[in-house]
Fold each of these.
Amino acid sequence: MAEQQTPNKKLPRIKGTNFTIMEVNLISRRVVEELGLLRGKFGPDITADAKNKIWAKITDEVNALGVSYRKLSTVKTKFRNLTRDAKEKFTYERKERNKTGGGPAPKPISMAEKNIINAMKDTSSFKGIDGGMETSVDSITSDQMFTAVTISLVPALNGFPTCQTVDDLPSSVESIWIRRLEQVHQRNEELALSSATVHASLPVPVPAQKQTCTHQPPKPSESMQKKKAKRTADDVYELQCLVLESDLKRNEMQMELFQRQMQFYNMMIQKKTIDSENMILDALLITEA
């Protein structure tokens, strides 16, 4: 018998061992120490051979831990992924500083990512180009971002006992109310500004004497010159209380209207029963006669 030829089967891909925290911290620390050489521009002292030697040295130190054998390309890819994750968390943390709260909690920053952020937070890849779209996202520095004290947006319980509990947290509904309040205040400021311009455009009476007088246009008030105050969570809770009170009054009025309708309905039923009884009595009297 001829030997049967078995079809070529695709061999399963051998998956490498995941990096441990000790390996990740070592890669982050060593690359940050040699960051000036690894990310520097090529010149007489900085060559591709010198960079490859540093990467090979870091790879040997990682393999010396004895967890698993790592290739040089694998170590480079791991550091590239760490840099990408650190940049995403750094950018997200910077953007969330000016928001009112709510939404998912930010992912915790590991020690390796923190080392990368501290070393590269002032570079253009993390900070962005001056004059670009993201330079005005926040007004705080990168050092303040990781040392700032977390401020709770939930006011004290005694301030609003009927509309708030201790477990209440800002949500997307509160952000909608805050945007609505900002729109209302902006519209009020526009109306005030338009009224001021109308008063300024009215004719000024000139005295009969032939005197030359210069009239200066009225200066805008200091309140208009000041920057619009940012709405806080207290304003949102106050507005929610007003809405709940109006809903309660409307419900009470609807209940009162329903009770009156029921009274009217009962009166109509009683009237119909009395009319039917009178008709029966009249019919009986007619038959007896």
Amino acid sequence: MIKCMKKIYFLLLGLFLMSSIPFFANTFSATGVIMDDGGKKTTDKATTIVLKGRFIKQPERSLPLAAPVDAVFVENEGIYLNASSSLPDVTVNVLKDGCVIYESFVDLPADVEVLVPVVCSGSGTYVLRLTNPQDGFLEGEFIR
């Protein structure tokens, strides 16, 4: 009798976990780093931006899946963004000394490099901030 109850318990547990997979697939967090050319800077004018934060599509129900967003600032070109999964309705802000100096709205398709044509004037520390309507938030600093 106890063996039968254990089998039923594990069967129900397995069914519950399998039915929860769609929830896992719709929830993710993002932390990412990019280096030009597969991990190596190809020019002295490229600056790696380390992004930290979370992008959440639905309320969290379990452990989030990683979804890195890569970013690199290239002098006189702008910031290149690349997401491993599609991120629609992303607000891109660049701040200097706490003030927004650039703002745009973009859709980040999966595995497509998107150029944000921001030109940072003057040397200093800048902040790249990415947000979405679902309270997703990524932020990283870079020095020009």
Amino acid sequence: MQVVKLKEHPGWFISTALIGTNLAIIIASTLGTGLLIQYFGIQRGEQIAFLVMLPTLFVIIIIRSIFQHYPELMAIKVAHFIRFSSLVFYPLTYFIAAISRGAVNISFDQKVKQSSYITKEGLKYILVEKTEGSDILTTEKEMVSRVFGFSELTAEKIMVPISALTALPQTMKIEEAARVVAAKKYMRIPVYSDTVYNIVGILHYFDLLDMLLKQQQTPAGASSAATVAGCMRTDVFYVPETKKAGPLLMDMQRKHEHMGVVVDEYGGAVGIVTMEDIGEEIVGSIDEQYNKGEKLYKKMVPGRYLINGRMKIDDINQILLTKLPEGNYETLGGFLIQQAGRIPLSRERPDFDGTTFIIENADQKSIREVLVIFPPQVERPQTQMV
């Protein structure tokens, strides 16, 4: 309760602290030096006074460092003393506070208003340097850090690449498409014409289900209705790969779009981005019922993990407590390809910093699965699947 009162009146708190600190230093210096000179003489007394005050200075620095690292805990412990001191020094505190307010209002009002705005860089510094020992959780720090980096992200960084997508040709029969949708458990699947780089529509699960019911009722339906082209939505939301995440999110909200097709400067599709992908950049991974089919990693035995080649290096370092370096890649597969200078073959066993990577599944274009064997002395999380 006392801490709350002091926080409501910061001027009184600062004035009391300054008055108490300066009075203590002045009184201690004056009396101590006088007594030492009286007992030991001028020359020896000054020398002893210097030797006594020097460690006192270090004690003050240590105490201030403790308060800086544990502000909440120390504030609770000294709040009653500060409150009592503010009452004792009330006349002097009131006089100093009044003079300070007048000087600020007359001379520096505009400057103070301008300096009251905190920049992004200032907030980053506070988040990293000033929250140690505070009650701010690690997850909260991570979320705030993601918010800072969100404005710099582009659709290219957020998207799921075209090589990792499940896409359907527009000529596919709806019965076959239904089997694919049931197996993948996706609500929306891109539809392409001729090549996956030419996305021409989005197939929605409920549209497909509705078409299947209609076809069962009228077996001799139109030929176009028997294929994906007859039930896909052609109003595709195309997104340039250089579009920033913030404007992209606002556009998708305004147009009520859940999925966008990311295209390069030549108009070819390079991936898709969803509202969920954008949200995960702020709050972290989101597991929804229809996209839990693919597991990014699985714990086999202690110290051994079977990891999807598309799992991001940042996620591996965060979840499995590793220190894989960052570079011109985002995934485990990209890391291993850069280390080898080529696409490793199945059953190859590259090593890095004591960790063994066994390529379990790979083709000519990418690495699909990797068995990672960590050093035995390294402790790993107990989570088995993500």
